[in-house]
């Protein structure tokens, strides 16, 4: 049984410590400025008693420094206090000051206070971006077989003052083309957040995510949920199982006094897994609108996705649906939060998608415009163009539950690698396949299927069987007669793992072979 450990406790502890530190610094700075104002006034009154009138020019900087460094309320209090103290001292308390000198001092402090008000007004506008449509900038393709391709990249959280969308740039898996657009409302920043994601999975598959959060602290909640989705996807959970675990994660993210019926935070998520080897896609949603599909012949349909309540509002299991996506199909996932009384999508979206567009990006932008019905609406759209693996790079064999099938499997692998020009990788691949097939015959049940995928410079060996029992890696003792198979696989492969489905499980191993070198004659 796999034990999943999510990092939310450490994340929240770090955020709490950061918040406490900032609060203490603000309080300390505020107290320091107040002490400076009081001390300056006391010194000036004491000097005036001896017939000396002296003005501290640093008083002009106090309102500006407060406006730049402190929260709005405290900066206004500091600025108003400085102006009031200056008027009280030079206007009434100190005698013998000329009218011109008194006017210069009070005017300088008043202008400083006015400039501080301008700084307070400009701070939110400098931090927030306007409500405009923005597409994700393209990312450079990574070299095949690198660590970035083999493992999910570290999530990059966008600050709460940014744009309410995560992340800024999407990964670009080789088996799909991606385009995304979103439109946010600057007046709702911090209350609504969306995230779109594409996660490389085992067997050249890709996980597609579209989620949204509405309520207080939406940016932080969306960041935590995106991290949880990537963690759960890395252990190859089915879409409906992933949403079930994500529902539990959201419950733990809420304060202890919140309940499922009184919480003000609402979250929706759609998770889809596309397999380019079989051209099939499995989807499950929690409170999210049903995605749309445009087939290569131009037919537009809405996927009949089982209705699921938003995350955190049910204890019932989520349901998934499976569809075929021919080569070149377009899958449209989107999230929608706002005050519109209309349901997002509908006939307007279908009519827009039925019109031919020049490119994937244009289709994504047209869908975005069709989904905007009312002000204060936020929409995020992810358009996915699917590609199927070439049949010349995928080989599948059905094997009987007979120990003699192991030798047949090695023969199939050797022949296929020779056809692909990877003869030098035959010994390693045959050993991996032998161990996986032997494990399936001894400890699992039929049907047993072997699949070999050659894509992006990597070889993926997959053995599927009808058992749901997961294998465990262990170190065999000296006199043990078994238990070394998975240890050998782990040593030879760069990555390996197990994923479950409704019919059993699949054990996979991936490694990067070296292409055969052409022979040269003297």
Commentary on this structure:
- It is a single chain.
- The chain is an alpha+beta fold.
- It contains twelve helices and 17 strands.
- It has helices at 8-49, 61-69, 72-93, 99-127, 147-150, 218-234, 239-253, 347-354, 360-371, 405-419, 426-443, 485-492; strands at 133-135, 165-166, 176-183, 192-200, 206-214, 266-275, 280-286, 292-294, 300-302, 320-324, 330-337, 378-386, 394-399, 448-455, 458-465, 495-501, 504-511.
- The strands form three sheets. Strands 1-3-12-11-8-9 form a six-stranded antiparallel sheet, covered by helices on one side. Strands 2-4-5-6-7-10 form a six-stranded mixed sheet, covered by helices on one side. A five-stranded antiparallel sheet has the order 13-14-15-17-16.
- Strand 6 (266-275) and strand 7 form a beta hairpin.
- Helix 2 packs antiparallel against helix 3 (72-93) and helix 6 packs antiparallel against helix 7 (239-253).
- The longest helix is centred in the first third of the chain and has 42 residues, at 8-49.
- The radius of gyration is 32 Å and the shape is elongated.
């Amino acid at each position: 049984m796999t034990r999943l450990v999510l990092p939310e406790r450490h994340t929240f502890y770090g955020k709490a410590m950061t918040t406490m530190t900032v609060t203490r610094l603000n309080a300390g700075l505020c107290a320091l400025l107040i002490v400076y104002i009081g001390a300056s006034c006391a010194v000036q009154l004491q000097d005036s008693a001896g017939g000396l009138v002296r003005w501290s020019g640093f008083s002009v900087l106090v309102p500006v420094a407060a406006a730049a460094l402190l929260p709005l309320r405290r900066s206004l209090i500091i600025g108003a206090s400085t102006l009031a103290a200056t008027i009280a001292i030079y206007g009434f308390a100190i005698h013998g000051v000329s009218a011109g000198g008194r006017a210069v001092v009070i005017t300088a402090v008043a202008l400083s206070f006015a400039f501080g008000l301008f700084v307070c007004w400009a701070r939110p506008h400098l931090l927030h971006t306007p409500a405009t449509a923005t597409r994700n900038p393209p990312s450079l393709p990574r070299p095949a077989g690198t660590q970035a391709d083999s493992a999910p990249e570290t999530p990059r959280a966008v600050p709460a003052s940014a744009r309410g969308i995560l992340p800024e740039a999407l990964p670009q898996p080789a088996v799909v083309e991606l385009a995304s657009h979103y439109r946010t409302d600057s007046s709702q920043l911090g209350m609504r957040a969306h995230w779109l994601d594409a996660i490389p999975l085992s067997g050249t598959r890709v996980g597609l995510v579209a989620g949204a959060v509405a309520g207080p602290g939406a940016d932080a909640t969306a960041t935590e949920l995106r991290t949880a989705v990537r963690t759960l996807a890395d252990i190859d959970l089915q879409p409906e199982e992933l949403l079930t675990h994500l529902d539990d994660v959201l419950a733990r993210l809420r304060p202890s006094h919140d309940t499922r019926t009184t919480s003000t935070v609402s979250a929706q998520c759609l998770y889809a897994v596309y397999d380019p080897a079989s051209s099939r896609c499995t989807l499950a949603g929690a409170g999210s609108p049903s995605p749309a599909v445009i087939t290569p012949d131009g037919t537009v349909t809405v996927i009949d996705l089982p209705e699921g309540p938003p995350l955190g509002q049910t204890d019932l299991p989520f349901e998934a649906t499976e569809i075929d996506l021919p080569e070149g199909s377009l899958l449209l996932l989107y999230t929608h939060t706002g005050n519109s009384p209309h349901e997002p999508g509908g006939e307007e979206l279908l009519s827009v998608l039925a019109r031919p567009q020049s490119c994937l990006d244009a289709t994504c932008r047209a869908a975005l415009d069709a989904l905007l019905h009312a002000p204060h609406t936020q929409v995020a759209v992810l358009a996915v163009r699917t590609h199927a693996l070439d049949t010349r790079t995928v080989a599948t064999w059905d094997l009987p539950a007979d120990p003699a099938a192991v030798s047949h499997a090695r023969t199939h692998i050797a022949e296929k690698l020779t056809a692909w020009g990877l003869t030098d990788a035959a010994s390693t691949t045959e050993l991996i396949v032998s161990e996986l097939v032997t494990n399936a015959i001894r400890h699992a049940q039929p049907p047993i299927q072997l699949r070999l995928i050659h894509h992006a410079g990597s070889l993926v060996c997959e053995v599927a069987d009808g058992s749901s029992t997961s294998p465990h890696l262990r170190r065999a003792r000296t006199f043990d007669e078994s238990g070394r198979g998975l240890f050998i696989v782990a040593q030879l492969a760069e990555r390996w793992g197990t994923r479950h489905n409704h019919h059993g499980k699949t054990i996979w191993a991936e490694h990067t072979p070296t292409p055969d070198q052409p022979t040269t004659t003297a």
